[in-house]
C-alpha cells in the first residue's frame, strides 16, 4: 500500500502593519505611554500596549514591495506615517513639525481641532496628511524623530501573522523657563513662542479602541504586569525592560543648599543623560537594536507551564537576508485564553544552563 508524503503546511504570510508595531513614546519626565485596549478589541483585547496601528494606503502610502520581497519588512516611510497617525488617533498626541522650520518644535493644534481631527481621520473622512495641511500648509509628520527599535514578525505557528516595526520617540524636555501659564501665546505656525514646547497630555479615544492612555515609568508598568494587574505581551515586556534599565535610575543626590533653579537644571541634565545612555546602548549593540529582527520561537516548556521563547532568528521571510535577532536574551511566558501571563526576560545563558543541568 502506497502512502502520499505529507505536504508541508503553508505559512501564513505576515502583512505590513503598524498595529503590532508601536511607538515607544517617552514623556518629558522619561515615562512611557501605554494604552489599555478595550476588551472587545479583535487584537490584544484588554492588554496594555504601545500606541500604533495598521498601515493604510489612504493615509500612509502604498507598499513599495510585493509580499515575497524581504525588503517589505524593512523600515520605510509608510511604517513611520502609520505609527504617528495611529498614535494621534489613539492618544491625541501629535508628532508633527513645520517642514520649513525644523527647529520650531512640535506643531500645536488647539483641543477642539485635535479631537475633531482624531475622529475624522479614524473614520477615513479625511487623510492624515490632508488634515495636517489644513492646520498649516507646511505641517508634516515628524517621521525623522522616530528611532527604529526592533522589528517583530509573528511566530510561524499562528494563522494570523503580522510584520511589525517598533520605534522609539523622545518628547522634548521643557526648559526651566517653560511654564503652563504662558503657553497660550503662540507663533503664526501655532507653536509656543521663545522655543517653548507644548506639554501634550494623552487621552483615550472615547472607548472606541482605548479605555485609558497613560504615562508611567517603565519599571512601574513592569511591576504591574508581574503583579497581574495588567497584561503585557512579550515584545512590550522586553522593550520596557530595556528602557527601564536606563530611564528609571535613581535620581541624583541634591545638595542641601541648592536653589530651586539649580535643582530643576540638574534634573533636566539627568533626564538628558539617561536618554543619551539608552540611545548609546541601542545603537552600539551587535547588531544594533535599530536593526534587530525577531520572530519568536518556542525552545522549551518549563515545569511551571511557561514557554521559553528564543529571539535570535528573524523568521523564514528573512532567510538569507543577513538580519539577526536578539541572541543574549530569552522570554519566559505562559499563554492562557485571555493572553500572556508571568512574563519575564532572562539571559539566554542562564536558561540554557538550567536546561542542560536538568537534562
Automatic annotation (TrEMBL):
Pfam families: NUDIX. Residues 16-238 form the Nudix hydrolase domain. Gene3D superfamilies: Nucleoside Triphosphate Pyrophosphohydrolase. GO terms for molecular function: hydrolase activity, acting on acid anhydrides, in phosphorus-containing anhydrides; metal ion binding. SUPFAM superfamilies: Nudix (SSF55811). Its cofactor is Mg(2+); Mn(2+). InterPro entries: NUDIX_hydrolase-like_dom_sf, NUDIX_hydrolase_dom, NUDT19. Keywords: Hydrolase, Magnesium, Manganese, Metal-binding. GO terms for cellular component: mitochondrion. Transmembrane segments: none annotated. The lineage of its organism: Eukaryota, Fungi, Dikarya, Ascomycota, Pezizomycotina. This is Nudix hydrolase domain-containing protein.
Amino acid at each position: 500500500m502506497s502512502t502520499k508524503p505529507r505536504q508541508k503546511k503553508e505559512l501564513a504570510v505576515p502583512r505590513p502593519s503598524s498595529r503590532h508595531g508601536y511607538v515607544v513614546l517617552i514623556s518629558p519626565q522619561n515615562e512611557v505611554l501605554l494604552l489599555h485596549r478595550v476588551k472587545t478589541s479583535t487584537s490584544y483585547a484588554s492588554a496594555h500596549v504601545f500606541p500604533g496601528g495598521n498601515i493604510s494606503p489612504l493615509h500612509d502610502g502604498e507598499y513599495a514591495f510585493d509580499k515575497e520581497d524581504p525588503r517589505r519588512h524593512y523600515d520605510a516611510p509608510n511604517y513611520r506615517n502609520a505609527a504617528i497617525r495611529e498614535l494621534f488617533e489613539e492618544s491625541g498626541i501629535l508628532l508633527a513639525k513645520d517642514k520649513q522650520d525644523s527647529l520650531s518644535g512640535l506643531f500645536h493644534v488647539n483641543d477642539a481641532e485635535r479631537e475633531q481631527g482624531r475622529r475624522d481621520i479614524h473614520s477615513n473622512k479625511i487623510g492624515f496628511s490632508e488634515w495636517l495641511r489644513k492646520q498649516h500648509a507646511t505641517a508634516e509628520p515628524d517621521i525623522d524623530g522616530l528611532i527604529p527599535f526592533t522589528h517583530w514578525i509573528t511566530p510561524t505557528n499562528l494563522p494570523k501573522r503580522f510584520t511589525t516595526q517598533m520605534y522609539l520617540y523622545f518628547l522634548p524636555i521643557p526648559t526651566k523657563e517653560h511654564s503652563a501659564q504662558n503657553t497660550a501665546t503662540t507663533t503664526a505656525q501655532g507653536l509656543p513662542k521663545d522655543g517653548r514646547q507644548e506639554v501634550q497630555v494623552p487621552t483615550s479615544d472615547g472607548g472606541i479602541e482605548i479605555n485609558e492612555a497613560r504615562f508611567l515609568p517603565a519599571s512601574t508598568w513592569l511591576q504591574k504586569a508581574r503583579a497581574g494587574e495588567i497584561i503585557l505581551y512579550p515584545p512590550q515586556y522586553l522593550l520596557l525592560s530595556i528602557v527601564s534599565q536606563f530611564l528609571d535610575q535613581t535620581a541624583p543626590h541634591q545638595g542641601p543648599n541648592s536653589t530651586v533653579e539649580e535643582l530643576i537644571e540638574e534634573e533636566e541634565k539627568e533626564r538628558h543623560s539617561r536618554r543619551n545612555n539608552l540611545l548609546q546602548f541601542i545603537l552600539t549593540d551587535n547588531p544594533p537594536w535599530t536593526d534587530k529582527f525577531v520572530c519568536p520561537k518556542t525552545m522549551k516548556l518549563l515545569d511551571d507551564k511557561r514557554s521559553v521563547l528564543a529571539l535570535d532568528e528573524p523568521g523564514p521571510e528573512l532567510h538569507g537576508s543577513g538580519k539577526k535577532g536578539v541572541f543574549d536574551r530569552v522570554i519566559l511566558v505562559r499563554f492562557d485564553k485571555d493572553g500572556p501571563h508571568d512574563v519575564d526576560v532572562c539571559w539566554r545563558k542562564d536558561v540554557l544552563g538550567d536546561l542542560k543541568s536538568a537534562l
